[in-house]
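Internal ticket #5521
Category: modeling
Description: The requester needs a full-assembly model to guide mutagenesis choices. All entity lines are attached below as received. Residue total reported by intake: 356.
Assigned to: D.W.
Attached entities:
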Amino acid sequence: MDVMLMKAPTGHTSQEVTLRPATPADFAAIYDLFQSILHEGTTYSYSPEEMTKERSLQYWMEAPGTHCCVAESGGKFAGVFAVRPNRTGRAGHVANASFIVHPDHRGKGVGRALGLRAIEVAKSLHYQSIQYNFVVSVNEVAVKLWKALGYSIVGTLPKGFQHPAKGLVDVYIMHRYL
Amino acid sequence: MDVMLMKAPTGHTSQEVTLRPATPADFAAIYDLFQSILHEGTTYSYSPEEMTKERSLQYWMEAPGTHCCVAESGGKFAGVFAVRPNRTGRAGHVANASFIVHPDHRGKGVGRALGLRAIEVAKSLHYQSIQYNFVVSVNEVAVKLWKALGYSIVGTLPKGFQHPAKGLVDVYIMHRYL
């Protein structure tokens, strides 16, 4: 069984986080979460409108080389990641990954569990590194987590993101060898 | 008329470089050049096979927001660029651009003429900056030219490109405000 159990960090609610490969039945929950995050507008560049169901299905589950896992906490859908090739051809040895932690399950170690599993998945697929192309610099929880999991900031896109509350802010590119 | 005349740099063949918006009739030459450059394999990550005619047409001319110009030197096709949105939504204020100088016309100021025109085009479209996502670090002519045109290296993707002669080499992300 492709299941990983993670103890939540000390001091948080101690429900276990379970990870498993996504199935078609998970897509409705993934799509709802993705749409709510795009409406929030603080982490992804895409507009909610452009990320139709069809494009979201490609993005999270069906584009070539995409591996999608979901997290559950207390039996409920708690988050999702997808690992995929960052580029093809002469850059096809670098993976990319996207993550969302469900707002009802933040601060419980879900992001950490997703991030660790994404590294395992990318390793198992024989990628040489993982690159995140778009980490909004003011998303401090994410930046701190990725650093804790061994990622470095390898680039800073100046004023690359129109944040709904903070205006134009920098975007980091983060990278980790596998 | 949307035409720019550029004097070639002193010491090179002094043929003028003419730039104009691409038309559908230019695509055959653009596609042949793109394929030959992908076979050369030193600058773009894409494999020649994945860049079918259909995908190449999207890439250079038809994807939403794409503006393509061709350069001519001595009446012959000498190069091409396309300016496009780098991302959509909350990052839609940043342009991206791709360039190829025809091997028969290298060292004649064609790249410089294309680069200057791309800046003009992006400005006219009200972008706030241009970002190049994938400048192979050992492509010294390109790196030097982009620096001369006001671009800075804002990121380094470690071992991001499988160079056909040099193995894994770094890739630069370059950026310029408009």
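Resolution: model delivered.
Comment from assignee: The beta strands of chain B are 4-6, 17-21, 67-73, 76-85, 94-101, 129-136, 152-163, 167-177.
Ticket closed.
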